Amino acid sequence: MDTRFFLHGLEQLGVAFYTGVPDSLLKPLNDTLYADHGLTGAHVVAADEGGAVALAAGHYIATGKPAMVYLQNSGIGNAVNPLASLTHGMVYGIPCVLVVGWRGEPGVHDEPQHAYQGIVSRQMLELCGLTVFELDKATSEADFAAMITASAPLLSRGESIAFLVRKGGLTGGEPVRLPQRDAMTREAAIRRLVQDAAETDYFVSTTGKASRELFELREALGQGHGRDFLTVGSMGHANMIALGMAKARPDAAFWCVDGDGAAMMHLGGLAIEAQQRATNLIHVLLNNGAHESVGGMPVAGGTLRFAPIAQAAGYELALTAETDGELTEALQTLRAAPGKLRFLEIIVSCGARDDLGRPTQTPKENLQSLMQALGK
Ligand SMILES: Cc1ncc(C[n+]2csc(CCOP(=O)(O)OP(=O)(O)O)c2C)c(N)n1
Asked: Given ligand 1 and candidates 213, 293, 299, which is best to mutate, with the most ligand atoms within 8 Å of its CB?
């Protein structure tokens, strides 16, 4: 179904405010909202899906109108808390309209991190009290009109609904064109880190293309994957995984390769890392100003800098590198300060190779080789 037709249907339910975390499967919707509203007024790219539900709740409280929350099904977990304890009919009864990209839908091949979430998505939404409508390529305009008619009384009695969108269920939209930065690519930055690190260092990389790039780099360098943990799901948690490892293994050195969207999603982790003082962990944040892996919607307007936040959280060295020369210098400074708490933000361009592949190892194979390298 064309995204504009879909949005027009939602307007009939009073929906005129849109928030969420982008998803590749919902790219036509994300692009259309961005083209129509930018990032202010009626459209907010939220830090996480729970925050988006809360924003939608605030909008309803102030206007009496339900708002749209868009998300990939990976983010249902983040949304469960406010759906169950804020908007649910047994609490405030605040209606929301969720639009959920259905990765890992049963019967369709997808990446391993989507397999279980794909199976339980509908159930999870229903357990939170939402009425679920599925959208796919075959959904006709008449089918959709019937869904809108069925939704109106639900929303007016304070219940929430979800459109669970299968691949190709929403179409159209002009691709977002973000202002391009004249900076090194994320992949080039990761290559520099891998080359700079000792062979015995461990890497924990974030969700999305960064992990895919790290995997391919190791293949190209013939280094194997036993030193890397690829955080393929669990967006925003790579730093806590790395901290858990670093605390338990003070004898080893760790790098967390994070993204700006992921860091935003669970920003509190930065303060915990600093408070825990794991000086054997270097937190590197690749800042391209966007959720590039899922289509490039901006993160916090695309202009946020994280090194000052890290410094305020207690990092003793919080550096920013924007050029190759600055990166060389920053890596030297980090290397020369092993006892300090270290953070490095690298400003990178927004994009990736067209032929970027996906890990050919399963998550379990990855874990097994990593634990073997750790002697466990
Ligand atoms: C909880 C959750 N929400 C949404 C997604 C979908 N998703 C995967 S990667 C990604 C963008 C990550 O952005 P960033 O950390 O800035 O890295 P980039 O892709 O820009 O390198 C998103 C939103 C997800 N995997 N999990």
From this structure: 293
